[in-house]
Specification:
Elements lengths: L30 E8 L1 H4 L21 E10 L5 E2 L4 E3 L8 H10 L6 E7 L19 H18 L4 E9 L8 H5 L1 H15 L7 E4 L7 H4 L1 H17 L3 E4 L19 H19 L20 E9 L1 H4 L5 H4 L12 E10 L4 E2 L4 E3 L11 H10 L5 E7 L5 H4 L12 H17 L3 E10 L8 H21 L7 E6 L12 H9 L5 E6 L13 H17 L2
Parallel strand pairs: 1-5, 1-6, 2-5, 6-7, 7-8, 9-13, 9-14, 10-13, 14-15, 15-16
Antiparallel strand pairs: 2-3, 2-4, 10-11, 10-12
Helix pairs in contact: 2-8, 5-7, 11-16, 14-15
């Protein structure tokens, strides 16, 4: 790929329109300019434009968005750049977060938007993106040139605009250099200050994307990823115009071998863009989740409620189970309707989406997804189980170690205290309404990623036991029933030395209230690790059937 010549303009007397203009009055004709920059997970590496149709909420994003201006410079040695402004579209069949970002933002605001993107895989903030002493591919000056020339064209066309936000996703490569890793926060703070100075935008908002912990690097390089996250948090905690954007719950490309990968891939990139869009819309007060109120409390006063807790990772969350696909499953479309006879509360994605109060059981996942709780509740109800309530706690970007009371060196990823409190709160809220509460069981679907990396696969059984025993102790319920469901783990020479299914079965065999469910007959799935709509419905039904058949 060859880089096209960029428009060069004289810099003396150059005028940048910034977000300060908003204070002087805005109108719907002012173009809001967003800058996207970073490394491979900003580029869209390992995404495939032909896969967009597989993910119903994002259908159509493989086509140009004629109403959105787009300027870009991508790559390292062989850079490819736009010839001025173009309609927003995939470049070289690569799906980037700007595609879904633009569509989501333009659904909520009337002002036109424009996107300038500069990204290259395998680059450092400490070197390539260093504003003061750029090295390597010297991307800071490349980016500054691309932005200035693109804005100059708008000036020449008499287009009124303001620079509205800077979306940054980078950091993986800095964790391989000790100095860069240790100083990531300091370098990021300087990076932001230099952009605000060079773009004459002192109030420019930055949106700092979290590094995805669902990738293999989130496991085998856990301490290094944590160090980068501390640097990012250092900046976003101290700068009111810098926002931390969680991304470790989004989809990740399924790789060969055991299934783990380094990149978001197609689905993850599309969800990545929605994350940035919602972060921006929240910052300007233009977005909030749709309420799902439980208008009538479904239980008789003073009645006894059976509370079911559902917990886990990717497939308990419903990563690739879309409501549009559920509508096509024979006899299952009814699950799309809210069931106000079953109260439900939830915390998804490690707290990315949390219910305000008890809601009716229904589809509530982010990105138009659903989990096995729909078919679980429906199956119990059809079997005559009454006064059902469901509390769901998931984090698809976690591993089992994060759920244990011991946790890991990545302290911000420790879930146990939050999970335990979630269960306690669920019980107490029902009691506060005057009910007697029976915690009927905790249903935990074993971490899919843990099965794909030998050190975590080897430790899975012990960590599951640690979680179960700690919750029993802390709830003072020594006989609390746990249902541990486990799908067929990846079959690959790099992990097969550990028979994790047998190890979990052995660990749970001495206690009739620790039920190990070997789900070895899941419906056919397209890829390793993740199940889709039909498998998610099946999972919920199987969990309910196991409960109904357990004395």
């Amino acid at each position: 790929m060859l880089r096209f010549a960029l428009l060069m303009v004289p810099m003396f007397g150059f005028c940048f329109h910034t977000s300060v203009d908003a204070a002087q009055g805005d109108n719907e004709t002012t173009v809001r300019v967003f800058i996207f920059a970073g490394q491979s997970n900003m580029v869209g590496s390992d995404s495939k434009i032909e896969d967009v149709v597989r993910f119903p909420p994002f259908v159509g994003l493989d086509r140009p968005q004629e109403n959105v201006r787009f300027s870009y410079c991508l790559g390292r040695e062989d850079q490819v750049a736009s010839d001025g402004w173009e309609p927003l579209r995939p470049v070289y069949n690569v799906v980037g977060p700007e595609l879904s970002f633009a569509r989501e933002v333009t659904r909520h605001i009337k002002s036109p938007i424009a996107i300038i993107k500069i990204a290259a895989g395998g680059t450092h903030l400490g070197g390539d993106w260093n504003p003061d002493e750029p090295s390597g591919f010297k991307l800071y000056p490349v980016a500054l040139e691309q932005i200035r020339s693109s804005l100059a064209l708008l000036d020449q066309q008499g287009v009124k605009y303001r620079i509205e936000g800077f979306m940054w996703h980078q950091g993986e490569n800095d964790m391989f250099e000790a100095d860069y890793m240790a100083n990531y926060g300091k370098n990021l703070k300087n990076f932001i200050a230099c952009w605000r100075r060079d773009l004459k935008s002192p109030d420019l908002r930055f949106y700092i994307g979290e590094l995805c912990t669902k990738t293999i690097w989130g496991m085998d390089l856990r301490p290094r990823m944590y160090a980068i996250s501390l640097g990012q948090r250092e900046v976003t905690d101290s700068d009111p115009l810098a926002h931390y954007v969680p991304t470790n719950h989004v989809g990740v490309e399924i790789g060969g071998g055991t299934g783990l990968h380094y990149h978001y891939g197609t689905l993850g990139q599309l969800e990545h863009g929605v994350n940035y869009a919602h972060a921006y819309l929240k910052a300007i007060g233009q977005w909030s989740s749709k309420p799902r109120p439980l208008t009538t409390w479904p239980y008789a006063k003073g009645s006894r409620i059976k509370l079911f807790v559902m917990a886990g990772h990717r497939n308990m969350e419903g990563e690739r189970a879309f409501v549009q696909d559920l509508a096509k499953l024979e006899g299952r479309a009814r699950l799309l309707q809210d069931d106000s006879s079953i109260a439900c509360r939830y915390s998804l994605g490690g707290g990315y989406k949390v219910s305000d109060d008890w809601e009716p059981l229904g589809p509530f996942g982010f990105y138009e997804t659903f989990g096995p709780e729909l078919s679980f509740g429906s199956t119990l109800k059809a079997a005559g189980v009454e006064n059902i309530a469901i509390a769901k706690f998931t984090h698809s970007g976690s591993q089992i170690i994060d759920w244990t009371p011991e946790g890991s060196e990545a302290k911000s990823r420790n879930l146990y205290p939050t999970f335990l409190q979630f269960v306690k709160d669920s019980i107490q809220q029902l009691k506060d309404r005057g009910h007697d509460v029976e915690l009927a069981g905790i249903f935990y679907h074993v971490g899919e990623n843990d099965m794909s990396w030998e050190p975590f696969r080897k430790g899975a059984a012990g960590r599951v036991m640690s979680l179960m025993n700690a919750v029993r102790k802390d709830l003072s319920q020594p006989n609390l029933r746990w249902f541990i469901s486990q799908q067929t783990p990846p079959d690959h020479e790099s992990v097969n030395r550990v028979d994790v299914t047998s190890e979990i079965a052995q660990a749970t065999s001495d206690d009739p209230n620790k039920i190990h469910m070997k789900l070895l007959d899941l419906p056919p799935q397209r890829e390793q690790l993740v199940i889709e709509a039909s498998g998610t419905v099946w999972l919920g039904e199987r969990l309910a059937e196991e409960f109904l058949s357990t004395p």
